[in-house]
Design goal:
By secondary structure, the protein is of the alpha+beta class. The chain contains 5 helices and 7 strands; from the N terminus they run H-H-E-E-H-H-E-E-E-E-E-H. A hairpin with a 6-residue loop joins strand 5 and strand 6. The chain starts with a helix and ends in a 12-residue tail after the last helix.
């Protein structure tokens, strides 16, 4: 038992060091990656991605983590996700004060923490179960990038940044790949 625990601990520590080494070995961003980063953090065309997503140590973890999608998704699937008008995560929460689009962050006992997406940036609200009259799929709230007219090059730059942040890839994404 003691030997198994020791081997497990050694493997865990080795994994942490391996991940740290990969992060340190990440190549510096290319011009495309920098443009994608700039769009991610301060888009002049709409709500920047960092308002709801966290990537490369920046942003707010309101929406889903983009790491898996950016590391395994195709260019097409990443762009289609950006253009989604509805998501599976957003619900319409009805309270005595009205209805608001939100995402459940956490439920503990009788309280729920809900990101209120009617505000920009989203506001974290804590509500008692009795305050929530209903919660159902929201069909009115729209994923912000779905209403932005990004060019093919801007989308390629965003995908380039996401891929670099998730995997360290500096492979150029061509505008023709997103069309």
């Amino acid at each position: 038992m003691r030997k198994a625990l020791s081997v497990g601990l050694t493997l865990s520590v080795g994994f942490v060091f391996a991940v740290s080494a990969i992060a340190q070995d990440k190549q510096p961003p290319t011009a495309q990656i920098q443009r994608g980063h700039d769009l991610f953090v301060k888009s002049s065309k709409g709500t920047p991605c960092v308002t709801c997503h966290r990537m490369a140590g920046e942003g707010t973890a309101v929406g889903p983590d983009l790491t898996t999608m950016a590391s395994m998704g195709t260019v097409h699937s990443i762009v289609m996700t950006m253009h989604m008008t509805m998501t599976n995560y957003v619900q319409a929460f009805k309270t005595a004060n009205g209805v608001f689009p939100g995402m459940l962050k956490e439920k503990q006992g009788d309280e729920s923490q809900i990101w209120d997406l009617s505000a920009t940036p989203p506001v974290l609200r804590t509500l008692a179960s009795k305050q929530i009259l209903s919660a159902e799929r929201d069909d009115k709230w729209k994923h912000p990038p779905a209403s932005v007219d990004y060019t093919s090059q801007e989308l390629a730059d965003l995908v380039g940044f996401l891929r670099w942040a998730a995997t360290g890839s500096v492979k150029e994404i061509k505008a023709s790949e997103v069309e």
